[in-house]
Amino acid sequence: MLKEGTEIVFLLHSLVKDSKFLMRRCSYTIQHVLRKDNKSVGQDSFQHLRQILKTCIAQRDLLTGKSIQTLYIKSLIPPSTYLSNHFILLYSKCRRLSAARNAFSATPFPNVFSFNAIISAYAKESLPHIAHQLFDQIPQPDLVSYNTLISAYADHGDTAPAVGLFMGMRQMGIDMDGFTFSGVITASCNDVALIRQLHSLVLVGGFDSYVSVNNTLITYYSKNGYLDEAKRIFYGIDEIRDEVTWNSMIVAYGQHHEGYKALVLYQEMVHRDLRIDMFTLASVLTAFTCLEDLSGGRQFHAHLIKTGFHQNPHVGSGLVDLYSKCHRGGMLGCKKVFEEIPEPDLVLWNTMISGYSQNMELSEDALGCFRQMQRAGHRPDDGSFVCVISACSNLSSPSQGKQIHSLALKSDIPSNQISVNNALVAMYSKCGNLHDARRLFDGMPEHNTVSLNSMIAGYAQHGRGTESIFFSANIVSIRSTSEFHLDTL
C-alpha cells in the first residue's frame, strides 16, 4: 500500500489527465491526509505539495500548477503566504499576468517576496508604472524590489525613473549589488556621460568584480561608439570573463566593422573550450556580415545545420541578416532560412521585414511580412515599426504610412520611441508631406541628430533650401552632457 504522502504525489501528477474522477479523488485524499491529527504526516504532505509546485515553476508547467492551486483552494488547507507566493511566481514565469494578480490578491498576508513576485510579473509585460505603484505599497522594499523595478524601467527604455530609484538608494544608504548597476547602466542607454559617471562609481565601490556589470559596460560603450572603452574593460578582466563577456566583445567588434577581430575571438573561445551558445553563433554571423564575407558565412551556415542551431530563431536572425545584406537577390535564401525555423520570434520577423525593406523593389513584401507577423500573434515593437515605415517610405506611399503611424500611436511601444518618430519624420519628408513631418517633429518629446537630419534633408530635397538653412540655424543643439549628476549626492 502506498504511503499517504506518496499517494498525493501520484494523484497530483495524474490530475493533469483532466479526469473529473481523479479531481474528486485527489481533492478527497489531500483533505483526508492534511486534516489528520498526525502532524508529521500533514507536514510531509505539505512538503510534497511544495516540491511539486517548485518543479512546476522551474519547468513552467502551467497545467499541473493550476491543478495544484485548485486542490489547494478546495481542500481547506490553512491559508499559506508561502504557497501563495509560489503561485504568483508560477503565473509570472508563464506570462499569465491576470492569474498572477489574482493569486497576489488572494495572498492572506503578503510579504516583500509577494510584492517582488507580482512586480516582476508586471515588469515582464512592460508595465513598469503599475509595477512602481505596487513597489510604493511595500512597507520595507528590499534590494530585490529595487533591482526588479530598475530593470523594468531599463527594459522599457525609461532612463529618468530608473536613475531616480538608483539615486534614492544612494541617499538612503541602501546596499547595492551588481544587478543594481547592470540595470541602471542599461537604463542609461545612449547617455554616455551618465554611463561614465556610473562606471566611476562601479570602480570606487568595487563592483567591477561583478562580471555582469562589466558585460553591460562593454555592451553600452560599444553601442555608443566607444569601442576602445569596451576593449579596455574586456582585456582588463581576463580572470572573471564568462561566455557573455566574450559574446559581448564579439558583437562590439561586429558593430564597429572589425569582423576579422570578432572571428579571431570566436576561434579563441573554441580553443579555450568555452561554451558556445546561440548568442555566440549569432555574433559570429554578424562578423561575417560586416566583412561581407558571403562565402565564409555559407560555410558557417553549413556548420550550423550539422549542429542543429540553424533552427534557432536567434541564429536564424543572423542568417537572414547575412543573406539580405551580402547577396544580391538574397531574400530567397532568407525565406528558406525563415521557413526552416519552427517557431519564429519577434526579432526574426523584424529581421525579415528589414531585409525586404532594404530592397526598394521588395517593399510591398515588407508590408506583407508585417501583416503576416501580426496574424501570427506577435505585437509589433519599435524595430517592427521602423522597418515597415521605411518600406512605406520606399513606396512613397503616405496613405499606408499614415495607417502604420496610427497603429504605432495605438501601440504601447516599450522602448526607443524616438527611433519610430524619426522614421515617420523621414517618411513624411520623403513623400513631400513636410507639414505633417514638421508637426510630428515639433511634438516629439526629444530629438537627436537623426531627427534634425531628416527634417533638413526633407526641406532640401523638395527645393526649400532657405527653410532648411533657417531650420538648421534655429534648432537648439542637442546636449552632449547628461542631465543626471550622480556626484552631487
UniProtKB/TrEMBL annotation:
* One GO term of the biological process aspect: RNA modification
State the Gene Ontology terms under molecular function.
Answer: RNA binding
Family annotation (Gene3D superfamilies): Tetratricopeptide repeat domain (1.25.40.10)
Classification via InterPro entries = PPR_At4g14850-like_plant, PPR_rpt, TPR-like_helical_dom_sf
Q: Which UniProt keywords apply?
A: Repeat
Pfam entry (one): PPR
Q: Where are the PPR repeats?
A: 142-176, 242-276, 345-380, 417-451
Q: Check the record and name the PANTHER family matching this protein.
A: PENTATRICOPEPTIDE REPEAT-CONTAINING PROTEIN
What protein name does the entry list? Pentatricopeptide repeat-containing protein
To which species is this protein native?
A: Camellia sinensis var. sinensis
